[in-house]
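Sample entry (147 residues):
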Amino acid sequence: MKVVQIISHQVYVIETRWPTAEEARKHFAPNIEFEDAPNWVGIGFTFVPSATIDEERWLKPGLPDGWAWDENGNPWEPELSRENERKGLIAEVEPSLLEAYRKLHSGDTTCDWSAKVSEIEAYIEAVEKTKEQEGYPETVIYPAKPE
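Predicted structure, serialized as tokens:
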């Protein structure tokens, strides 16, 4: 359960300072409404006080196209999240790629730098191709990072 603040029948704030709505009410003016809500309730949900079961008391708002609900009841845009993940994974290997390029072009023979460059470039391409996976963007399986 979580404690939420309600304004005009909408979840406005998820309150983390108090374990129960009853405890939260002690710290605010009487006109500030708090309720105990299931963990899947998020900001923007509609609260129906007259309903008797959770699924009818807490109604999910509609979402724009391309958005989904996360496991905590919060809206998220999967495509944007996945794009940020891809950028992060690529950014993690870019220094290694630049170093491999530098060593390859400097004539360093301590490693097969050409193979290292190819390995990292193949990884970056595979990360970019995750957009084509079945179940994308809700589920994605990323390739293993090169050594």
